[in-house]
Amino acid sequence: MRVVLVGVCGSGKSTLAQGLVRLGYEVKECRQEHSGVPYMWQVLSRPDLLICLDASEEEIVRRGRHLYTTGLIDEQRKRLAHARTHSDLYLMTDGLDATQVLELVAAFLAGYAKRPTDLTDAPG
């Protein structure tokens, strides 16, 4: 399963990607927040599952990203709107440390992997 991550700068994409790779997932970070092409994540990444991370400006600054202004984060959110709408999981990472984000996403992925992929095999 190819997991693709999108999100505003400072939301935790790189750290989450590293953790998921250690758990054995195929992960790609898509820098959709820097592109004006709304569907870039679909074309370049071709995900089986899309995760969208977000964080408030205050949290981004707290994480050491002092160069990100409200205008820039707002623009990134606009660029991510299409991906967010199509994401399988949207996660606001404010107040969560890297371990908590990884645990939440890993639990989601474990549950997602157990879903029937062929409805003809599903009970009922």
Detailed description of the structure:
The protein has 124 residues and is α/β, with parallel strands linked by helices. The chain has helices at 13-22, 40-45, 57-62, 70-86, 98-113; strands at 2-7, 26-29, 49-54, 89-92. The chain has a single domain (2-118), classed as Rossmann fold. It is built from five helices and four strands, in the order E-H-E-H-E-H-H-E-H. Strand 1, helix 1 (13-22) and strand 2 (26-29) form a beta-alpha-beta unit. Helix 1 (13-22) crosses helix 5. It is globular and about 40 Å long. Residues 118-124 have low confidence and may be disordered.
Topology:
Layout: E1 2-7, H1 13-22, E2 26-29, H2 40-45, E3 49-54, H3 57-62, H4 70-86, E4 89-92, H5 98-113
Estimate the mean pLDDT confidence. 88
- In the CATH scheme, the class would be Alpha Beta
CATH architecture: 3-Layer(aba) Sandwich
Helix content: 40-55%
Put simply, the count of helices is 5
- Give the helices and strands as they follow along the chain: EHEHEHHEH
Q: Can you tell me the overall shape?
A: globular
Largest sheet data: 4 strands, parallel
Beta-strand content: 15-25%
CATH topology: Rossmann fold
**Radius of gyration, whole Å:** 15 Å
Widest β-sheet, arrangement of strands: 2-1-3-4
Q: Structural class from helices and strands?
A: alpha/beta
How widely separated are the two ends?
A: 26 Å
The total domain count is 1
Low-confidence stretches: 118-124
Number of extended strands: 4
CATH superfamily: P-loop containing nucleotide triphosphate hydrolases
